Write a sequence for this structure.
């Protein structure tokens, strides 16, 4: 059976003290979850939060890492540095990184390679923008994103990948994909994984939904057979809401 997961993505929110307070609340409340629980935090929180969550089922993710191994890249944080904080995951390919920081499929392929090489698990995000959905092009868009960055991985490497389908038009907009839209896309993604690897590997792949997923709509989204959990932005910033989403999984 594939892993069910609820992951948070704090994005550029919470200073260190606020982040520690939220992680402390989660640590106290999440004792024996029915699914994997991950929180993606800004780089500056990672070491402190990973230490605080030692022994807790709540795992820590970075929200990005560099596309170079090391060296003269002022302001960048390498996959090895992320790993050294105690974080176990890194979120890569988020649409905000693609859109605002011009991350390309090629750069992301390199980031994924470096993350895996350094023993990090990857939550890899894909998804179409509104115009692409309106033109009915969502399938070709996500296919190209997968082919461009991760479908070259070996079957062994693929085990470290969790996919997150995040339709860009649903992120932070309050416009959630309908459960049917999510299911349709997740089933398609699983079919692509089956073709690129094999049906067993596809069946074992965790595919999360992200985009205005909250404590009110999570259960309905998670009820779909191919929706294995969620990647949560805004609602992961409030312990009560994030905990309710975990309980819905
Ligand atoms: P929201 O839940 O705020 O829409 O963000 C989703 C997201 O981008 C998670 O990575």
């Amino acid at each position: 059976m594939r892993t069910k997961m609820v992951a948070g993505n704090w994005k550029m929110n919470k200073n260190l003290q606020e982040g520690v307070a939220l992680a402390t609340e989660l640590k106290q409340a999440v004792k024996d979850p029915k699914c994997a629980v991950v929180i993606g935090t800004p780089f500056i929180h990672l070491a402190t939060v990973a230490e605080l969550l030692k022994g807790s089922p709540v795992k820590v993710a970075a929200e990005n890492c560099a596309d170079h191994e090391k060296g003269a890249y002022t302001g960048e944080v390498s996959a090895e540095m992320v790993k050294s904080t105690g974080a176990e995951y890194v979120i890569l390919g988020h649409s905000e990184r693609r859109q605002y920081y011009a991350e390309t499929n090629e750069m992301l392929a390199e980031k994924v390679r470096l993350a895996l090489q350094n023993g990090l698990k990857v939550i890899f995000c894909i998804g179409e923008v509104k115009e692409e959905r309106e033109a009915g092009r969502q399938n070709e868009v996500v296919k190209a994103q997968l082919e461009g960055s991760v479908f070259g991985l070996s079957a062994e490497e693929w085990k470290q990948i969790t996919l997150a389908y995040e339709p860009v038009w649903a992120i932070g907009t309050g416009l959630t994909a309908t459960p049917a839209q999510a299911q349709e896309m997740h089933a398609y993604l699983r079919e692509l994984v089956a073709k690129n690897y094999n049906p067993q590997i596809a069946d074992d792949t965790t595919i999360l939904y992200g985009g205005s997923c909250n404590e009110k709509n999570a259960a309905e989204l998670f009820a779909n057979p191919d929706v294995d959990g969620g990647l949560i932005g805004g609602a992961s910033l409030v312990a009560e809401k994030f905990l309710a989403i975990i309980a819905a999984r």
Q: What stands out?
A: Strands lie at 5-9, 36-41, 58-62, 89-92, 121-126, 161-165, 207-210, 229-232. The pocket of 1,3-dihydroxyacetonephosphate is lined by residues 9, 94, 166, 171-172, 210-213, 231-235 (CB under 6 Å). The chain has a mean pLDDT of 98.
